[in-house]
Design brief:
Dihydrofolate Reductase, subunit A, nine-stranded mixed β-sheet, two-stranded antiparallel sheet, 8 helices, binds NADP nicotinamide-adenine-dinucleotide phosphate
Amino acid sequence: MNFIEPVLEVAAAHRQRTGRPFVTLSYAQSLDGCISARPGVALALSGRQSLKLTHKLRAEHDAILVGIGTVLSDNPRLNVRLVDGDNPRPIVVDSRLRLPLDCNLLTQESGRPWIATIEKPDKKRSIALEAAGASILTLPSNSKGQVNLHALLDKLAGLGINSLMVEGGARIITSFLLERLANYIVLTVAPVLVGGLRAVSDLGQSDPENCLRIKNRGHRWLGEDLILWGHLATEPNDEQ
Ligand SMILES: NC(=O)c1ccc[n+]([C@@H]2O[C@H](COP(=O)([O-])OP(=O)(O)OC[C@H]3O[C@@H](n4cnc5c(N)ncnc54)[C@H](OP(=O)(O)O)[C@@H]3O)[C@@H](O)[C@H]2O)c1
């Protein structure tokens, strides 16, 4: 299944044109749109073949991003293990520098994480995290006092990141969609009903005309899971 290579072939040109990396949102959800049973608790939804696809997608991107909530609940490694390929640069969005010093991202051998945080970070925590191998990216905050994701994408482009895979969790997925910062989506839908934590919360749209749509879409079954992919409009009424 090689739908992503042609898309990412233009990632460098996309960065040059827009000043931002090409952003792929990719996560696994249940039939009822949940990514875990309860907030803060990991739930394995993907089958073996879809997991392999996730690792292939990781290998195709320059960097991979999650929110601090996902690190605190899942302690992910975010590297490439199930296929051959390079590890993407791990990035954690973490306004209050809560990343634990003993998390996998800091103790494993594969690429040290970049932590995206807001201006005036706690000095002691920054020093401790840098001593543990992290690099701190200091960014302006948004109206909620969290990391301004527009500024983060500008910064990542400046650091040479052409393509960014965003894996979750719920708040990060919602922020990227709400701010229309994702260019592409690869969704794994597992054939279960969970009744738990929704991947996407309020996107502020009541008019179906203005809802985000997937364009140039494709789909395929991988084992029991349905994989859906396609472009996301980054502007309202953007026909892609
Ligand atoms: N099924 C899947 O594919 C999948 C993938 C990943 C995660 N998950 C699940 O998702 C759950 C975690 O989701 P979550 O919503 O609690 O955490 P999250 O989305 O991973 O992280 C959210 C945190 O990121 C920080 N943040 C900083 N700037 C932000 C911004 N502009 N927008 C949004 N967040 C920002 C905030 O904490 P600060 O204010 O402290 O910075 C926020 O609470 C877990 O249960 C995990 O298992 C599932």
